[in-house]
Amino acid sequence: MYSLLLALIYLSFISLGLPDSLLGSGWPAIHTDLNVPVSYMGIITMIISGGTIISSLFSDKLTRKFGVRGVTAISVFLTAVALFGFSFSTKFWMLIVFAIPYGLGAGAVDAALNNYVALHYKSRHMSWLHCFWGVGAIVSPFVMSYALTSSVWNNGYRIVGFIQLGITVLLLITLPVWNVNKKAAEVQSQKSIGLIGALKIKGVPFILLGFLAYCAMESTAMGWASTYFVEVKDISVDRAAQFASLFYIGITVSRFVSGFVPEKLGDRRMIIIGTCILVCGIVMLLIPAPIPFAIAGFVLIGFGCGPIYPCIIHSTPTNFGAENSGSIIGIQMASAYVGSTFLPPLFGLLGNLIGFHIMPIYLIVFTAFMLVMTESTFRLTRKADSKPTNKQELS
User: Fold this and answer.
1) Structural domains in the chain, sorted by start
2) pTM (2 decimals)?
3) pLDDT tens digits, residue range 40-57?
4) What is the C-alpha separation between 73 and 165, in angstroms, rounded?
5) Is 387 exposed, middle or buried (0-12, 13-18, 19+ CB in 10 A)?
């Protein structure tokens, strides 16, 4: 039963990753079809991010009321509704309307599942969980590419919408499976501590700032890699897009490999190791060397990023207590979306003013800040090497 439940959680995270790459991969055709400027994609992503931040902040209260299984099923269904809405949209305002349930569905399930795995499973499963998100994010551009080749962009959203609907039905059918961890989940029966209560806990403000800095760095590397290759390395747009995809491959492979690393390393050491690897990648971008060095640099940055996000989340119950983890992880998710939404555009502004060659400097600043904040958290809590006792010993 534990293995079946874990498979359902992995499947849910694939469903979380599937829609994330659709908008970017289909936007060149979407904005032309809807006759809106290319910059309007930012409006849609901001609305989605806003909804995600709101639902992340309320995820703990929703989870305590409806349970993880209920939040997961409802969230996946909301995402499916939004995707079908996108597939039938013929005006830009329709995309705006359906971006709202899209964001609200994504944030709640993200926080709820992250907290559930952090409480009940080993660190390796958190790494694999986010690896499966990467699988979804990698697959969806191919779905959109197929739709654009064979018909229109709307069908790309429709295909993924049917997949999400199928996952919703499967989750509803298998709801009793979630009872396997019912006894272990009783620790969460207390009242939610809320945002103010969480901020009063020692170390929480530091981890929120560290998580924000990490997500700012990761999203900047993801979103601006192609522009860096074009503007700094002077290569063609199509080749730049291919090279930029190596970051996604690096981070997905890293999270898969991280699951096989011995548990005795612990979350804190994994964060430090990942940071060292990504710093090596950033240094390779700083070196005025041929293009292969820059390509290898982005692969290393992605590979180094791999364990950091999952390990920060997984360490939350250990650092702050299982009874507080639901609230804190929800706030962490909100902090993450703030960093990934607002700070990459800041780099774009700086790149236009100064030059995109400053990317390595921008990345290293946020990486250093992230490491200082996470280390401060572990030192304050003084629980870096201990483990929650209610995790399932699954291989």
Assistant:
1) 8-174 (1.20.1250.20), 195-381 (1.20.1250.20)
2) 0.80
3) 877 888 898 888 888 888
4) 10
5) middle
